[in-house]
Amino acid sequence: MATDNIEKILLIDLNRSECKSVAYGPLLGERIYGRGLVLSLFEKYLPDETGRFEPDNLIVIAPGLFAGTPAPSAVRMFVATAESKDGGIQISNTTGNMPQKLGSLGIAAIVIKGRAEHGNTIIHIDSNGADILWDDSLEGIPTGEIVKSLKGRYGRNSAIIGTGISGDKLLSLSSYFCTYPDGIPEYNVPRDGFGDVWGSKNLRAIVVDNEEYFGRTCADPERFRLLGRKLTQTIINDDICGSALPSLGSITIMKILSGCDTLASLDSLRQKQASASTDTPAVRPAGERRNKTCAPMCVIGCLNRHSTNDGRQYMSPAQVETQAAISKCFGTDDFYLAAEVQEKATDIGIVATEFVTACKTFALSQGIENGEERLLMWLDEVESGSLTGRLIASRTYGVADLYSDVKLGGWIDRKAVQDEQLFDVKMSTKYPGLRGLDELELLYSQIFVLENLGFCIFTAFALLDKDETFELMAEMFEAMTGKEMTGEQLIMEANACLQREKAFKEKRWRAAQKAVIPPFTRVLYRYFDKKGTE
Predict the structure, then answer these.
(1) What Cα–Cα distance (Å) separates residue 411 from each residue in 65, 196, 359, 427, 486?
(2) Domain-located, residue 484
(3) What CATH number should be reported for the domain holding residue 46?
(4) How much of the chain exceeds pLDDT 70, in percent?
(5) Could you tell me if residue 391 is inside a domain?
(6) Which of the four, 60, 75, 182, 240, has the lowest number of CB atoms within 10 Å?
(7) For 363-387, b where at least 16 C-beta lie within 10 A, e where not — what string?
(8) How do residues 126-141 score in pLDDT, each as one tens digit?
(9) Residue 172 belongs to what domain range?
(10) H helices within 367-425, ranges in order?
(11) Contact 142, 42 (CB under 8 A)
C-alpha cells in the first residue's frame, strides 16, 4: 500500500533481470497520469526507429489515476507498445482486477524493455517490490491452464496479465489475457492486445498478488469518498448505465450500433428474457462464483448479464459478440458453435470476433462456401501455426494484402476513427475555453479524460457532454491529489494528451495521423449523432 502521495514507476529490464523504481506522483508536481503517462514514458524510454520485435521496444502498463481508490467504475489501465519501426503506439484499454491492485501499491506505471534469456518469464510484483523468474511448466498450455497454475501458486485473488500459445508464435492476431476477480469468467482476452510483443520478449505473465484493492493514497479520503458517492448516483441514474447494461450487458452496445430505438428495444428484450423458460441448461460450470463485475467498485456490472430469448446463458459477454460476428459473416445463429469458437479462441489467446472476420475474408479469397463449418478446423490451424493458420492470424488486413486481386467488400476490419465522417456528432459543453475545438475533437478529449482517470468507457453514456459531471470529477481530482482542478482544465489537459499522441505518430510516420481511439467510440458516434436525434 502506498504510504504517501509520491508513487513510483517500475522500470524492468529483461536483458539484465533488473527491476528499479523511480519516484513519481502529485507531491513531485506531476500532472500526467493514465493514458497521458503512457505517451510520456514512450517519449522518454523508446529509442527512435525501434522495431516491433526488437528488444528495445517497450511494454508500458499504466492504471488510470483513480484506479485503486473507491471511485465508482474506475477499473481501467492501459497496456501499450510501439506498433513498428516507423509507426505510433498501439494502446489497449484493459479492465480486470490488476488496475486497482497496481494503484493500491502506488504504482503509476510499469515500463518493460529487453528480451528475457529464458522463455516463460514471469514478473512477480507485491508490496516488497518486483522479481523476475521463469516457469517452463507454462510452455504450450492453454490460457486457462496458465491462469490456473499461477493462481495456484500466488493465490486465487492475485491479478495476472500475460500471453499464451498465439503470443509464442508471434501471431498478429494474438492478444494478452487479463484476469477478473476470482470467479467465472476468470479472465478476458481484450481487443487491441498484442501478445506477439510479449512472445518476442519471452514474457509469459505479470502477477500482482497484494490483497489491497482500495489502498491508493488520497489527500482527502473522506471528501473523495463522498464525491465518489455522488458520481455513483450519476452513473446508476442513467438509463443505459443504470438499467440496460446491468440487465442485458453488451447486447446493449450491439443494439445501439444497429441503430435501433435503444431503450424501447432493450425493454422488449428484457421482457422476453424474463418470461423465457429457465429449464434450459446454462453453458457454464455449476457451483462457481459468477462475476457480475469485471472488478470491485464497478457500479454498472454488465458481466454475466447475457442470455438468449429461450433462457440459455452465455459463458461470457464476448460470446455474445462472437455469435453476432458469426451470424453477420456466415449467416448462422448457432449458439453452441459460438460457444466452442469463443472457448477455443481464448484457450489460444486470440480475440474470437477478429478471428471470425479473418476467416470470412479467407473464405472469400479461396471461394469457400459455408465457411462456418470450418471455423473450428481453422482454429486448430491457428493453434498449430500452419501456413493457413498464420495467414488467418494475420487478420483481415493480412489476407487482403495477399489476395489484393480479390474483392473482399466491406469485410476488412476498420479502425473506429475511419467511421467518424459518417456521423454528425454534436456536443453541448458550455466551457468557454473549449469553443475552439471541433465537435469530434471535443468528444475525443472527453473520452481521454475518462481514460486518464481510469473510468470504464461504458460510463461515457452517463458522464460525457455534461459540464456538471466534469466538475464533479475535477473535485475528486482535487480531493485525491491536493491540487486545484476544474472540469474545463481536465478536458484541456486531456486534449493536450491527444495532441501529443498525434505529434508522436506524425514524428514516427512523418505524416499527419488521426487520433487512436477505442473501438467503443463507434457507439458514441451514434449516441451523439445529431442526425439521429432530429
Answers:
(1) 38, 24, 10, 31, 44
(2) no
(3) 3.60.9.10
(4) 88
(5) no
(6) 182
(7) bbbeeeeebbebbeebbebbbebee
(8) 999 999 999 999 999 9
(9) 7-208
(10) 375-384, 387-392, 395-402
(11) no
